[in-house]
Design brief:
The protein is α+β, with helices and mostly antiparallel strands. The protein is built from four helices and five strands, in the order αββαααβββ.
Length: about 150
């Protein structure tokens, strides 16, 4: 029996407890539309950015973060995701906006063409508040009309 304990301690083929990692798989669509299986690693920050993008794009209220059924739904999709509060969502959305604003400024500084600036007025569906957006329109190097919200 003692020789087995000694062997277990020095065996190079024995896996260590810290080496066990289970790979998660997910289905993804390829460029041709076929379904492929790929490795998946959950990333909290990627999931948060997707949530913030969804809130902004669909004009959901920040109180959706406090809705019990929404939290239950998110937990059913990915139990590892920590949803946070509406204040963390507000801070995350504002930092996301600042980052996109910086990228737009850098992109526009590199442009050698002219930029036409327009203003648009619109009303949010769920809040009945009016907003004004300043948009820059330009034609890029590949002769494609591009638009960028400046303010």
């Amino acid at each position: 029996m003692n020789h087995l304990r000694t062997h277990v301690k020095i065996c190079i083929y024995r896996k260590k407890l810290g080496d066990k990692v289970q790979t998660n798989l997910r289905f993804a669509a390829t460029e041709k539309g076929a379904v492929a299986v790929e490795n998946y690693v959950f990333d909290q920050e990627v999931a948060r950015k997707a949530l913030y993008s969804m809130i902004v794009l669909h004009e959901y209220p920040l109180s959706i973060m406090d809705h019990h059924e929404f939290c239950k739904f998110v937990s059913a999709l990915q139990p590892l995701f920590k949803i946070g509060t509406r204040n963390t969502a507000r801070k995350g959305i504002l930092s996301f906006y600042d980052m996109e604003k910086r990228k737009a400024k850098i992109f526009l500084q590199k442009m050698t063409c002219r930029v036409a600036i327009t203003t648009d007025m619109w009303t949010a569906d769920n809040q009945k508040r009016g907003y004004m957006a300043v948009t820059g329109h330009f034609i890029d190097d590949s002769w494609t009309l591009r638009s960028c919200i400046l303010r």
